[in-house]
């Protein structure tokens, strides 16, 4: 029974190895941001043309902008 045993009783710590789990998604944090209605409409139209949810499009655009700014700072 697990309550009376330690998992270490069944596994050899010396044989442990680090595993990489590439399919894990990063933790997400919800935020609130106010945008003009026209901007949201435009984002929805663009997202629809790419067949993605508009919030996913916003994340993609933010990621691209952040990467561009990061490159400027490093240069």
Number of helices: 2
| Radius of gyration (Å) | 22 Å
How would you sum up the global shape?
elongated
**What is the arithmetic mean of pLDDT?**
89
User: What string gives the helices and strands in order?
Assistant: HH
Task: Write the topology of this structure.
Blueprint: H1 37-50, H2 54-74
Helix pairs in contact: 1-2
Structure description:
The protein is an all-alpha fold and 75 residues long. The protein has one domain. The chain contains two helices and no strands. Helix 1 crosses helix 2. The longest helix has 21 residues.
What keyword list fits this structure?
mainly alpha, 75 residues, single chain
Question: What's this, in brief?
Answer:
The protein is mostly helical and 75 residues long. Helix content is 47%, strand content 0%.
């Amino acid at each position: 029974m697990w309550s009376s045993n330690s998992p270490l009783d069944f596994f050899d710590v010396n044989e442990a190895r680090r595993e990489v789990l590439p399919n894990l998604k990063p933790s997400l944090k919800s935020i609130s941001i106010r945008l003009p209605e026209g901007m949201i409409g435009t984002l929805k139209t663009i997202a629809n043309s790419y067949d993605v949810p508009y919030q996913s499009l916003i994340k993609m655009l933010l990621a691209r902008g952040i990467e561009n700014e990061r490159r400027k700072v490093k240069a």
